[in-house]
Structure prediction request, 70 residues.
Amino acid sequence: MAMEPIKRKMAMVVNQIRMDDEDALDVAFWLTKTPSERIEEVTALRKRYFTWKNGFYPSKMEKVVNKKPL
Prediction:
């Protein structure tokens, strides 16, 4: 005898936040983190991005700094 799946209802919830407020919340969040935690997260994001884009993470990165002309 097969059981019928339980039907569940989920309420859709939307919170509207102005972009200016969102930026301030982002800054406030990251200011609660230590510099090493911030660097660790940026490194993790870079690894995910390069792996997604190229299929692998390069063993070496070239440091390139571009300076805007004054």
